[in-house]
Structure formats: structure tokens, C-alpha cells
Amino acid sequence: MTAASSLSTSDKRDAILAAAVELFAERGFYGTAVPDIATRAKVGAGTIYRYFPSKEALVNTLFQHHKQRLVEAVLGGLDLSWPARKVFSEFWRRTCTFARENPKIIQFLELQHHAPYLDEASRRIEHQLLGTATAFLEQGIAQQVFRDASPSLLTAIVWGAFRGIFQGGCDETLTLDDATIASSEQCVWEAIRR
Amino acid sequence: MTAASSLSTSDKRDAILAAAVELFAERGFYGTAVPDIATRAKVGAGTIYRYFPSKEALVNTLFQHHKQRLVEAVLGGLDLSWPARKVFSEFWRRTCTFARENPKIIQFLELQHHAPYLDEASRRIEHQLLGTATAFLEQGIAQQVFRDASPSLLTAIVWGAFRGIFQGGCDETLTLDDATIASSEQCVWEAIRR
Amino acid sequence: MTAASSLSTSDKRDAILAAAVELFAERGFYGTAVPDIATRAKVGAGTIYRYFPSKEALVNTLFQHHKQRLVEAVLGGLDLSWPARKVFSEFWRRTCTFARENPKIIQFLELQHHAPYLDEASRRIEHQLLGTATAFLEQGIAQQVFRDASPSLLTAIVWGAFRGIFQGGCDETLTLDDATIASSEQCVWEAIRR
Amino acid sequence: MTAASSLSTSDKRDAILAAAVELFAERGFYGTAVPDIATRAKVGAGTIYRYFPSKEALVNTLFQHHKQRLVEAVLGGLDLSWPARKVFSEFWRRTCTFARENPKIIQFLELQHHAPYLDEASRRIEHQLLGTATAFLEQGIAQQVFRDASPSLLTAIVWGAFRGIFQGGCDETLTLDDATIASSEQCVWEAIRR
DNA sequence: CATGAATGAGTTTTCATTCAT
DNA sequence: TATGAATGAAAACTCATTCAT
């Protein structure tokens, strides 16, 4: 067998992950059959079980991997000691850009929110972004940059607004272009600033 | 036989609806088996099919019923010719109150968003609240009460923020008390006002 | 309650029998649901079980009743000592007339042929007509009126031909008018006569 | 592993078809449960759905396959320009031989007559044998070989008689040996000849 | 290592039968 | 006596997972 006629091991695993994230995003976990993932990944159904012990393990692997990517894309190199306005602006721009470039992944991540099949590791990572956001907001509240409200409330508003906008993009009632991102940033900033 | 020892026909239907809305809210449509609904409703599995022709018909009945209740609770008696600030305030207070009193229902409604098993009637009613919101925002934008942004964007931010806050309430990272509602209203108003 | 507002006991039983024979003829035993019989008979589903202990008992009652009626209609007052030609002619005319006047009943009886749910009594009566026919044919063979073949074979041909013609009537590829009956009698007579 | 210890894919499909035709012949379509077919075919219940999309598709596949086999066995190489007596003789001998060698199949085919679950293709093929028979009889009537009766009537008598004889064979009131076949051919020929 | 046919437990749904009214 | 709502066992069918090749 020549190199061209087969995929390397890692490529197969990646094909499975890519197919699964799309299908889970489109139809949800219970709505997606393992053989359908295999078909879209162009591998045999049994092959999936060489890389993942179960459908649940697969969805958890995906969740942790992509949540991590999101965290890195949004927080990587962000310095919370920068001015709050700049931090927020960066955060918003990065989040929206990530969403624009990886809509299926955001859709996938949001759909799995609090799902019963997520394991401990997935649940832990789910709170990572939230934790950093809360820390940032607490600091800003103390410095009287942000409204004197619970950091959880401000986090809920900011992340909720992002999800609403992202969903608008998916529904095609909204276009996630630069102008919209800038405009939305302004709105959400006003929601939280003092 | 005493009145307490048996349920009337209508009570059984109601028990099925109540059990189903809870389970769908907790586990989603595909994650909920019909016999689970029957068990929680304390009826036989076959009984469900005396009231609803299929699991899909059941979820659509629930969706339409509760979405209608939400629309009425939020929009009933609301006069869009009132000052925008007052309309918004009423809308926000009513929405949050409904969510506080009917958390499972909000959770259920949000989970079914754009689900493939929703029928035409469900999809139509899904857009009713959105349509009124957009009309209200358009009017406010024209009157320079709201920011000069697309009404869809403002809708996405307001409804997204509400969902974020509601989810915080479910996660118990937030308490939906009157103070939080008032505080959040202020935040979201600032997000959209000019 | 006045006499006009309710059916007598016997009328209900008859309504059930009439509804059941039609449905069994149209859809077969397994294809007919008991509640459908109740609906067509305009009685409650439970009422059927006041007259018949089970669906199987109902079908056996029907089978025995109508098979008996058929036997009487075909053999009643027939004297096997008449000339064979006349006996056959009477038999054929009576059978075809019964079929023309009671198509559903013939259809029902033929559909249940050798069904696993028929009980001993039904199976016994199923052979009654056959037995008389065989006796008649044996006598005719001995008298060299009929072909020198096994009476079972002649019976099979005569009854098979009748069923074929009857089915043609149901399919509307044939009209069971007097001319057709006379013509068919001639054919079938030629098949068996010496 | 030896050849005997496993079945090829096609063997499994064949085992399902063979088990299904027997059970449908014995108990009818509605009286046969899919798991019963699986048990008799010695496959898992799910396996049936790898080869046939539904129970209805299975029965239609069987019907079309075996009806086609019957048509070929009876009509293959038959030349309607041969003398009518010879054509009839061949037809009768072939039909009876097929029935003797494939009793379950004849039983199966006759039981499905005009069943509501038969699809268009099945219904079309059902009329093929009938059509040829009618054409042959029409020609013979025109040539004054056959009785001056409607071809449908003669067809009904011939096919009905065959079914009666076949059923006698199943009931064991008749033996389908060569003598019986020859004798029956003579009888039925007399029924239709001028 | 890769496969995909095979499986059986689990799903949705039907229906003969019961029983409180 | 008559009812029809209620039931649960069993039907058709699906799909996560296994295993022989």
C-alpha cells in the first residue's frame, strides 16, 4: 500500500472528530447515530471504536478539545492588567472572530451545555472561561470601571448577549461582519460599564 | 371512591403534559423515552397515545401551549405607545418573573429552538415574540430612543442576555430575586438605549 | 329509558357479529382490531367482552354460525336420491345464489380456512359440507355418472372452481348473474361427469 | 474457520427469505412477527433490517420473486400457437409440478392475494399470468376450441380448480401424484373445451 | 490496524383485554 | 348491563457496540 492510498492513523482520528463535531452541532448528541459519523468521516463504523471507547467518550473528547481551543483563542496572550476597556474589546473581537471562523464548533459547544453525558473533565473546563471572566469583572467592579452588580450577572449578560448574536448569525437574521461586531461590542460594553 | 383517589380524564392529560415538559427540559426530546414520561406521570405507557398521536405531537402541543402562555404573560396588555423605557421595563420584569415562576418551561422552550421535529404551527408561534420585539425596537430606533443599530442585533442582545441570566438562575450561579432583575434591567437598557 | 333509545341485548350481539364478519372479511383476523369492531357495531369496546370471552371466541362463533347457514342453504331439503344432474344443478345454483347474496360471508369463511385460531368445533363443521359432497360423488362414481376419479379430487375441482368464480365476482372481473351461473354450472358439470 | 461454520452475506439474506416465505405461508402476513422470522432464519432481529427496509418491503420482495418464478416455470417456452390441447396440457402439468415441488410458495402466493400491503410492482406482476391465460382462452374461444363463455369465467374455473386441488394436497386429502395430475387435467379440460 | 455485517437491548407505537363508573 | 379510558405486553424498528475477517 502506498502512502497516497491510505490516511495515517492520526488523519483517521481527525476525520472522525471533524465529522462528529459537525453532526453533533447539526442534530445534537442523541440525534446523531455513530454509523452516520463513520459515513461522513469515510471510515468504517468499527474504526471509531479503535480511537474512542464509546460515543460518550467521543463527545467528551470533542468538547474538551474545542472548549480548550476557544479558551486559548479568547484568552491567549490577554493581559488582565491592561485597561478594562481594551481587555473587553479584545475579548469581544476574539470571541466573535472565533465564532465567525468556527460556527459549527460554537454551535456544538453551546448545544452540549450541561448535558448529562458530559464527564467531570468536561464540566471542569466548561467553567474555565467563566472563572477568568468573573475574575476580570470582579477586579473591574472593585476599580469602579464596571457597574456595582454581581460579577455572575455581568458574565451572564455578556456571554448571553454573545450567544444571542451568534445564534442570529446562524439563523441568518444577522450578519457577523466587522461592523456588526463593533456595534455589538459597544452595546455590550455599555451594559456592564459603570 | 373519594375524589382524591382518582384522576379525571383531563387530569391525566395534564399529568402527561407536566411530566413531559419536565423531562424534555431536563434531558431534551431525543433523550427522553416515552415510558419515562408515563412513569413520571403515573400512567401506563399506552395512555399517552390516547391523548397524543405521537411523541412529536406531544412535544409540539407542549411547545405551542407554553410559548403562547409566555407570549401572553410578556405582551398581554402591553401598549407599545407607552414610553419606550416603561415598555422595556415591563417587558423585562414580566419575562424575568415568568422565568422565575416557570423555570422548567423556559428551559423547555429554549431547548426546542429550531428543532427538526417542530411543526409549522410551532415554528410560526416561535416568531411571534420576536416580531413584536423587532417592531418595538424599530420604532424606538426611529425615535432615536435606541442605538442606531439593526433591530435584529438589539433583539439578539436583549433576548440573549435574558437567556444568559436565566441560565445563571438554573445553574444557581445567580439568584433571580427582585434586586437582580432590577439590576439586570438597568444593564440591558444601557446596552440598547442611545 | 324508552324502547326506542336502546337496542335489546340480542340486537347488540348481532351488531357485533355483523360488524366483525365484515371487518374480518375485509382485513383478516390479525388485521382487524377489536376496538374497530366495536366502533363499526356502535357499541363500547368492553361490550364485546360481555358477549364473547375473546377475539378468538368471536371469530369461532362467527365461523360456526355462518358455515352452518351455508350448509343449510346449500344442502337443506336436498335429496341425494334425486338424479345426480339435478342434485348438482341445485347445489350449484344454491351455492352461487348464497354467494351472490352474502358475498362478505363467503369471503370471511374462505379467509379463515385452516387458520390456527379456529377451534375444534369450527374445524369439525368445516368438513361437514365436504363430507356430504364426497358421499354424493362416491355414489355417483359407483353409478358411473361421474368420472372414475377420487371423490376428493372431484370435490376439490368443484369447490375450487366455485371459489375461483366467486373471487372473480369480488374482483369485478366477473358478474355473478344468472347467465354466468348457468354457464359455469355447465362447465363444472362437464368437469366431473363421465 | 471452515466453510460450514459461517454463512456468506447472500446466504443470510436467503435464510431470511426462506424463513419468511414459510411463516407467511403458515400464518399470514399480520400473523407473523418479525422476530419469529429472525429466529427461524437463525439471525438477529436487527439483521432483517439490514436487508429489507421494512416487513412490507420483505413481503413484496418475496411476492415478486416467487410470482416471477412461477410465471417462468409455467409459461417459459410455452408457444401459444401450439394446439390448444397441448398448451393446456403443458400448462397444467407445469403448474401442478411447480406446486408439488414448492407447496409453501404456492400457499404463500395465494394467501397474499389482493393484500393491502402489496405495492404497485407486486400488483402488476400478479396480473401477468392471468393476462396470458385470458389471451390464450380468447383465442381458443374464437377458434371454437373452447366453450363460448367469457374468458374470465374459464380462467376463474381453471385457476380455481388448480387451487382447490393444490389445497387438497396441503390438507392431505389428495396426493399430487402423476396419476392425479393427469386425471385432474382431463377433468378441467372437459370443463372448458367445447 | 481497519472494516462493516451482525447483533440485541432499547425505542416508539399498537391493541386485546380489564374494570371503575 | 354497558361503557370506554386505561393498561402493559408485544409489535415493528433503530442503533451503539462487537468481532470475524
Q: What is the correct CATH architecture of the largest domain in chain A? A: Orthogonal Bundle
Oligomer description? homotetramer
Radius of gyration of chain A: 19 Å
Largest interface: which pair? A-B, 40 and 39 residues
Mean pLDDT of chain A: 93
Number of domains of chain A: 2
Strand-residue proportion of chain A: under 5%
CATH overall fold name of the largest domain in chain A: Tetracycline Repressor, domain 2
What is the CATH superfamily label of the largest domain in chain A? Tetracycline Repressor, domain 2
CATH class of the largest domain in chain A: Mainly Alpha
Portion in helices of chain A: over 70%
Individual helix count of chain A: 9
SSE order of chain A in H/E notation? HHHHHHHHH
Instruction: List unreliable stretches of 5+ residues of chain A.
Output: 1-5
Shape of chain A: elongated
Lay out the secondary structure.
The structure is a homotetramer of 194-residue chains.
Chain A: H1 9-27, H2 34-41, H3 45-51, H4 55-75, H5 84-101, H6 103-111, H7 120-142, H8 151-171, H9 178-192
Chain A binds a DNA duplex (21 and 21 nucleotides) through helix 2 and helix 3.
What would you say this structure looks like, in words?
The structure is a homotetramer of 194-residue chains. Chain A has 2 domains: 1-52, Homeodomain-like (Arc Repressor Mutant, subunit A); 60-192, Tetracycline Repressor, domain 2. Chain A has helices spanning 9-27, 34-41, 45-51, 55-75, 84-101, 103-111, 120-142, 151-171, 178-192. Chain A is mostly helical and 194 residues long. In chain A, helix 5 (84-101) crosses helix 9 (178-192). Chain A binds chain B through residues 27-31, 113-114, 116, 147, 149-150, 152-165, 167-168, 171, 173-174, 180, 183-184, 186-188, 190-193, and chain B through 27-28, 30-31, 113-114, 116, 147, 149-150, 152-165, 167-168, 171, 173-174, 180, 183-184, 186-188, 190-193. The first copy, chain A, binds a DNA duplex (21 and 21 nucleotides) through residues 6, 9, 12, 33-35, 38, 43-50, 54-55.
